[in-house]
Amino acid sequence: MISLFRSAPELMVQYAHYHRDRRNILTHLVGIPLIVLSIGMLLSLISFDIAGNTVTLAGLLWVLSTAWYLTRGNWLLGLATSMVNGALIALAHTPDAATGWGLTGLYDASWFPGLVVFVLGWAIQFVGHIFEGRKPAFVDDVVGLLVGPMFVVGELLMMAGMLRSMHSLIEAQAGATR
Q: What are the distances in angstroms from CA 78 to CA 32, 86, 162?
C-alpha cells in the first residue's frame, strides 16, 4: 500500500525508525514547527478569491492536510496535529509575521523572513539527524514530510501520558528511545 494511505500507527512506526535518539527528537520539537510556520509565511503571500473571500495558499494547504490527518485512523492525534498546524498557520498570517519580526529590514522582500525561518528549521533538523546517525525519513518516503508534524505532536501527547498503545507499538517495532 502506498504510504500516503497508511494508518497513523503505521506511519508513526515507520517515521520512528529514523528517530530514536532523544536529541534528534528534541531538535524535531523545535525544527518541525519552524518549518511549518515558514511554509505558512511563504504560502500566505499567495492568495486568491473564492466566492468573494480571500484565501491564501497556506490556508488551503492547512485544510487539505487537516483532511489527511483526520483520516489516518487516530482522531486524537489527527485533531491535535491539525490544531497545532492551524495555530502555526494562523501565526504565519499575523502582521508581525508578514513583516518578518524585523527581518525584512535586512532584505527588502516579503518572502525573506519565511525563507530565513525555513532554513533555520531545516538546519535544526539536520543537526538532529547528525545525532541520530541516520538520514531523514523523507529521503526514503516523501510522505515523511507530512508525518513529521504528526510525529512531533504524537511525541508531545505520549510525553503527557496519552497514546499509550501507539507508544507501545512504536517501542515494540522501532525500539526504545536512547
A: 16, 12, 13
* CA triple 23-41-153, angle to 5 deg: 35
- Euclidean distance between CA atoms 151 and 164, whole angstroms: 14
Q: What are phi and psi of 93, to 5 degrees?
A: -95, 0
| pLDDT, tens digit, 9 for 90 and up, residues 69-128 | 999 999 999 999 999 999 999 999 876 665 555 555 555 567 778 898 999 999 999 999
**Distance between CA atoms of 5 and 36, rounded to whole angstroms?**
21
C-alpha grid cell for residue 133? Answer: 546517525
Say if CB 144 and CB 16 are below 8 A apart. no
Q: How many residues does the chain have?
A: 178
Residue 36 near residue 149, CB atoms below 8 Å: yes
Q: Are residues 159 and 80 in contact, defined by beta-carbon separation less than 8 angstroms?
A: no
| DSSP letter string, 98-135 | HTGGGGGGTSS-TTHHHHHHHHHHHHHHHHHHHHHTS-
